[in-house]
Specification:
The protein is an alpha/beta fold. The protein contains ten helices and 13 strands. The N terminus is likely disordered. It holds the Pfam family ABC_tran.
Length: about 325
């Protein structure tokens, strides 16, 4: 691993933009940073700009605007700038040996075996770890003699991850790392990512599994139509959304018999077949006042359920809010 301090930003993105041929702007001025030894997740619906952003961080394309730095270098820059010693790595040359990349699809030669593929890849990596070691890390130690074309989709994702780990990277880019994996494979991958983070590896991942982001990410950003709609820890992002309480109305009572809902801190409610659903930004106060009312009335609130917003609810709420804001902007 490198000598960076805990407080340095391994990845710095400032007002980053990406425009494809024809003028489609996939990334529209986003800014974020990732600290050393942190797992950072990029979330978003299909077409939100996740992969477009990661490709810029990996140096696979030049940004249309803004600035990106990985380990202090421009990942796309090649050559040596004026006044810089040629013997000192710079730009892409300085970054590549220190990063690992797991693309959405590896595209390996189908006739090679797993072991042959790993050995071939190791020959392209500076200071590669023993191939059998990384294959064991991802659970492919018993599939080394199997041809790539005979692997399942989940096994191919495991191979993609193994090859990304060959160089013992300081920074690891994972683009949808658990797509195609079964539940056990997904959990195994999560444990491996946590172990890498604990060892000091910085991980940036994209995923459409919200449970995965909630379980792994120290911080995250939710992209919507090429912009960052929300960022922070999973707890901070979910805390910005209302909590919910639901229960079945006691027999003989109507919704109007409850205390005035605004006085309970309720910001929204609905009634469906005598089941009351409340949304509140003050979960403890609302739940306490509701239970005090039930005790005073001498009734039981059956099917009572109170919980904070999940990341999925926050994600959907943020997407709706962003879409509504964009529609108003276009209509103005």
């Amino acid at each position: 691993m490198g000598t960076m301090t805990e407080h340095e930003h391994v990845i710095e993105v400032t007002d980053l933009r990406r425009v494809y041929e024809g003028g489609f702007e996939a990334v529209r001025g986003i800014t974020f940073h990732v600290k050393r030894g942190e797992v950072f997740a990029l979330l978003g619906t299909n077409g939100a700009g996740k992969t477009s952003t990661v490709e810029l961080l990996e140096g696979l394309a030049a940004p249309a605007g803004g600035r990106v730095r990985v380990l202090g270098h421009d990942p796309y820059a090649t050559g040596v700038p004026p006044g810089r010693a040629k013997s000192k790595p710079w730009g892409r040359a300085a970054i590549r040996p220190r990063t690992g990349v797991m693309l959405q699809e590896g595209g390996f030669p189908s006739e090679l075996t797993v072991a042959e593929t790993a050995r071939m890849w190791a020959g392209c990596v500076s200071g590669a770890r023993p191939p059998r070691e990384v294959l064991a890390l991802v659970g492919l130690e018993r599939r080394t003699d199997v041809r790539v074309k005979q692997l399942s989709g989940g096994e191919r994702r495991r191979l993609d991850l193994a090859l990304a780990l060959l160089g013992d990277p300081e920074v690891l880019f994972l683009d949808e790392p658990t797509t195609g994996l079964d539940a056990e494979g997904r959990r195994d991958t999560w444990e491996l990512v946590r172990a890498l983070r604990d060892a000091g590896t910085t991980v940036l991942l994209t995923t459409h599994y919200l449970e995965e982001a909630e379980s792994l990410a120290d911080r995250l950003a939710i992209l919507h139509e090429g912009r960052i709609a929300a960022t922070g820890t999973p707890a901070e992002v979910t805390a910005a959304q209302p909590s919910r309480i639901s229960f079945r109305l006691p027999e003989g009572y109507a919704l109007g018999d409850l205390p005035p809902l605004p006085e309970l801190g309720v910001c929204d409610h609905e009634l469906d077949a005598r089941v009351v659903r409340l949304r509140t930004r003050e979960l403890q106060r609302t739940a306490t006042e509701l239970l005090l009312w039930a005790r005073h009335a001498g009734v039981e609130l059956r099917e009572l359920d109170a919980r904070s917003a999940s990341l999925e609810e926050a994600f959907l709420g943020i997407a709706r809010e962003a879409s509504t804001a964009r529609q108003k902007e276009h209509a103005a």
